[in-house]
Amino acid sequence: MKLPVWLQSLFLSLVLISGFAFGADAPATVNINSADAQTLAESLIGVGEVRAREIVKWREAHGAFSSVEQLADVKGVGAVVLQK
Q1: pLDDT of residue 16
Q2: Is the pLDDT of residue 23 over 70?
Q3: C-alpha–C-alpha distance, residues 72 and 17, integer Å
Q4: For the chain, which domains are there?
């Protein structure tokens, strides 16, 4: 069942707000559909500059990621990176 966009947005907002309540101990979140290569490389464990550029390149060629697991379609991103 697909939720309406407004409900997805509300849920995401609540998740992000609650993450800020935990302070510095909470892991930073990054939007894989809008972050630039530098932000991806700095924010994602196991993703360096080359992989980050590949993620952006894939996104530009195929459109937005529908799930985090779809990162496995990017050259150089495998199960180990996804697990991290």
Answers
A1: 67
A2: no
A3: 28
A4: 28-83 (1.10.150.280)
